[in-house]
Amino acid sequence: MTGPVPIRTGLRAGGMTALLGGLQRGLRDLIVPLDRVAEVVPAQGRVLEVGCGEGLVLKRLVARSTRVVGVDIDERKILGARQRFASQPHVELVLQDAFTYLSGTPDGSFSTALLVDTLSGFAPGDQLTLLAEMYRVLEPSGLLVLKAIDGDVRWKAALSRALSGLVCGVFQMSFSAGQKFTYMSADALREALEALGGVVVVRHLHRERFHPIPHVLLVARKPAVSRP
Questions:
Q1: In this predicted structure, which of 30-34, 169-173, 221-225 has the lowest mean pLDDT?
Q2: What distance, in Å, lies between the first and last C-alpha atoms of the chain?
Q3: Which domain holds residue 131?
């Protein structure tokens, strides 16, 4: 693990920030099947999303969750999320590095933990550590919901990497933990989640309805009783 990542702040200000932020939200809603992610999250649970951005996934969950926590290192996005959920007292938005937040979170704190296109922004050596920490803070029978890009579908993954680089590096519309994107294969992600003890279901969303981005959704359920 490389250690805590500094909090990132937007490089653009004023009207340009608002314009680029709105453009990014629109593109993300269009390109990423966020409704598919939200529909697997049980109702009436305690939800954590690491890399929540401005809350595009959380807004789909807030009405049916008992507690919602979103964590992100991008100050601009957290400010936007706080404005979005200002009237929702059960929503907490935290400006913090993922590992710093998780290190202070007790085991079993959440019923669902989400990583939506966040894992690839971490260094390869940190990705398995992040999955393990997300799994640790789940209660028994809790769900780890991972939306990722399947690195095995090479031309689609290359397209996704180019788009992410354009959004983060060129237009500075977003920040991630490193600006370089490393995509694990769906099989490797499944094996990693199974190694943690989860019962894993994999859905290749880009095959269910053709999509040029190889979206894959993995849902790992933690056993009701911890394995010896």
A1: 169-173
A2: 26
A3: 14-221
CATH number at residue 167: 3.40.50.150
Q: Cα separation of 130 and 119, whole Å?
A: 8
Residue 163 maps to a domain: yes
Distance of alpha carbon 60 from alpha carbon 75, whole angstroms = 22
62-109 residue pLDDT tens = 999 999 999 999 999 999 999 999 999 999 999 999 999 999 999 999
pLDDT above 70 covers a percentage of the chain that reads: 73
Q: Are 178 and 121 in contact (CB under 8 A)?
A: yes
Question: Does residue 4 lie within any of the structural domains?
Answer: no
- Stretch 132-141: mean pLDDT, rounded? 98
| Residue from 147, 217, 171 nearest 11 by CA | 171
Sign of torsion over alpha carbons 98, 60, 27, 172: negative
Q: How many domains does the chain have?
A: 1
Q: Residue 219: name the closest of 114, 117, 137, 98 by CA.
A: 114
C-alpha distances out from residue 151 to 99, 190, 227, Å: 24, 13, 30
